[in-house]
Design goal:
Layout lengths: L5 H12 L2 E4 L21 E2 L4 E4 L6 E6 L1 E2 L7 E8 L7 E9 L6 E6 L7 E8 L2 E2 L3 E4 L9 E6 L10 H6 L7 E4 L17 H4 L14 H11 L3 H9 L2 E3 L10 E2 L2 E2 L9 H15 L15 E5 L3 E5 L17 E2 L2 E2 L1 H8 L9 H13 L4 E5 L8 E3 H8 L6 H16 L7 H8 L1 E3 L9 H13 L3 E6 L5 E7 L5 E7 L8 H5 L6 H11 L3 E5 L4 E7 L4 E7 L16 E5 L10 E2 L1
Parallel strand pairs: 1-8, 12-13, 13-14, 18-21, 21-24, 24-26
Antiparallel strand pairs: 2-5, 3-4, 4-8, 6-7, 6-9, 9-10, 9-11, 12-28, 15-16, 17-18, 19-20, 22-23, 25-26, 25-27, 28-29, 29-30, 30-31
């Protein structure tokens, strides 16, 4: 943690842990049942941000709410909770009361313990004469489970559109958990990234939070705005979240000591990061990794003997600064040797050594059928022809609709062994470079370590990713060509994807998707233009990915676009890991 002092670490730990209350069972009389003669009852309160559960284990689960003072008072508020085995709350199993206030932004997180594995529970909160909506949650199974199902989401930009993907995910049956892979909020100001339609959609940033986020107050207000969204509240109440942050919870392209969107004159980055992480821990039902650590968010969840889910932090705790192609151009052109040496360096880290050691240990000791990595950025090897990447870097001044078909035709001729091809033509498709240096392609050594480990231990590996706003599926293999597993990446909830970046007309998008899929060796599927979510279902026989897309995020009315829904699967066993096959 270069640049992060022991004092910063202790401060972050105290901030994260200060908001967690432990509930062990029934406690008796609750103070929130004060009579109307109590002067405190005159206070005006609201549960304006719903409820949430998260980080389920076999015997415990976190529950969350925020109580909003409506009367201008800054006094602390007593909040009680109830957990029951039935939706009518006739069979109460837990209750209790705790105080919350300005120090934790009036949020309350309760770690409900002594629960039974694989059971559904119901919970709610009360404050004075107000009762929150009820939420539904489920503990992890201990053994004997036949299926595990996740809804996977990321990249939810409030001003960019409506959160229809959250609403649809809440309707999915038999969800064990919702995996949010980051970019739960965005830090940009009014007029910044993807805010151009906000006023027309009625999703403008409020005047007291319309600037870029820098301070604790800024981040808290942005979370408060997002959590007023009815669709997000519905999903939080429907199933437990298992969440990790990505970059926009702090600033675009964050790494351990800085960010692309943290510039000179914007203050100390560590202070900004601490503020962002404090707000994240306050507003998300995330359990601190340990009693003395409020910075570590990587953690594992075992769903019986079927799935071991390892949630990673590829963004904040260990990441070295991203490489930039610009730095490798000189008077004689691009220095390919220097770039290759840097991008493949064994000293270059995305996870940091401590997290890498932890992950290797978790995978090694797990006996589950599936090893699943829940993380932020694409792991698949996305190597594009250099000519194509040049065109993508400036789509306004290139003819992609001509370049892409030419390259695909050339690649097919190369694969067919066409003897009439010239060296220049062959070079057009065989001179390839990584598409995104912010992803695992920019940290190639550590990717090879993980893939090599899974291969050597004969593990069934499935990697889940977000970040790009687009839906992808990749085969994963070592540099030696040994098949290891597959990657499923979810589309964004609202953030625009390649369709916006490329500037192609709608009718050209399917052709571009097919061309990119043909040109990238390990890529099996791409939807470059639609928003939605990913449903992943694991059984002993297969890991199945179902991509769900909504017709629009720019209007209140929408439908699920079944015409472009996609299903892919992979099978367990070393003989099957090369396959990502359509059902």
């Amino acid at each position: 943690m270069a640049g992060f002092t022991r004092r910063d670490f202790l401060r972050a730990s105290a901030l994260a842990l200060g908001g967690v209350v432990v509930s062990t069972g029934l406690q008796g009389c609750l103070s929130s049942s004060s009579s109307s003669s109590d002067p405190a009852v005159a206070r005006q309160l609201a549960f304006a941000h719903g409820v949430a559960s998260g980080d389920p284990l076999a015997d415990r689960i976190m529950i969350w709410t925020r109580v909003t003072p409506m009367d201008g008072s800054s006094a602390d508020i007593e909040v009680s909770w109830e957990v029951a085995s039935d939706a009518a709350f006739t069979d109460l199993l837990h209750d209790g009361t705790a105080s919350t206030g300005e120090a934790r932004d009036y949020t309350l997180k309760v770690d409900v313990q002594n629960l039974t594995p694989g059971q559904t529970y119901y919970y709610r909160f009360k404050a004075l004469d107000k009762t929150s909506v009820a939420g539904t949650m489920k503990t992890l199974p201990s053994a004997g489970i036949e299926q595990v199902r996740f809804a996977v989401l990321s990249c939810s930009n409030f001003p960019a559109g409506y959160f229809h993907a959250y609403a649809q995910a809440a309707q999915e049956a038999q969800l064990d958990a919702v995996l949010h892979l980051g970019d739960y909020i965005y830090e940009y100001e009014t007029g910044g990234y993807a805010t151009e339609d906000a006023a027309a959609l009625g999703r403008s940033l409020p005047s007291d939070n319309a600037g870029e986020l820098f301070t604790l107050t800024d981040y808290r207000k942005r979370y408060a705005l997002y959590r007023t969204d009815a669709d997000l509240q519905t999903l939080h109440a429907a199933a437990p979240f298992i969440a990790v942050w990505d970059d926009h919870e702090v600033a675009n392209d964050t790494w351990k000591d800085g960010a692309e969107n943290h510039n000179e004159g914007e203050g100390d980055f560590n202070e900004r990061k601490l503020a962002a992480l404090q707000a994240y821990f306050e507003w998300l039902p995330v359990r601190p990794a340990s009693e003395d650590d409020g910075l570590t968010i990587y953690r594992s969840f075992d769903f019986g003997d079927l799935v071991s889910l390892h949630m990673l932090d590829t963004r904040i705790i260990g990441r070295d600064e991203q490489l930039n192609y610009v730095n490798y151009y000189g008077p004689t052109g691009f220095d390919a040797a220097a770039f290759t040496a840097d991008v493949s360096s064994s000293t270059r880290t995305l996870l940091g050594q401590e997290q890498m050691n932890w992950l290797q240990s978790q995978i090694a000791v797990s006996t589950a059928t599936w090893q699943v990595l829940g993380q932020q950025v694409l792991m698949g090897r996305m190597l594009l022809p250099a000519e194509m990447l040049t065109a993508l870097s400036d789509p306004a001044n290139s003819n992609l609709t001509t370049t892409l078909p030419e390259l695909v035709t050339l690649k097919l001729r190369v694969q067919a062994g066409d003897p009439t091809l010239t060296p220049a033509e062959i070079a057009r498709v065989q001179t390839v470079i990584p598409y995104n240096l912010d992803a695992w392609d920019g940290y190639a050594y550590e990717r090879e370590v993980i893939l090599g480990l899974a291969r050597s231990l004969d593990k069934n590996l499935v990697v889940l990713a977000g970040d790009t706003h687009n839906a992808w599926a990749n085969n994963l293999s070592t540099l030696a060509g040994d098949a290891v597993g597959v990657e499923f990446a979810t589309a964004g909830v609202t953030s625009p994807g390649l369709e916006s970046y490329l500037g192609l007309p709608a009718e050209a998008i399917p052709g571009a998707e097919q061309a990119i899929t043909a040109l990238v060796d390990d890529l099996q599927y791409l939807n470059a233009s639609q928003r939605g979510y990913l449903l992943v279902t694991f059984t002993a026989d297969e890991a199945r990915a179902d991509w769900r897309f909504v017709s629009t995020v720019k209007a209140r009315e929408y439908v699920v676009d079944n015409a472009r829904s996609k299903t892919l699967r992979t099978l367990p066993g070393s003989a099957n890991r090369t396959l990502v096959t359509q059902v």
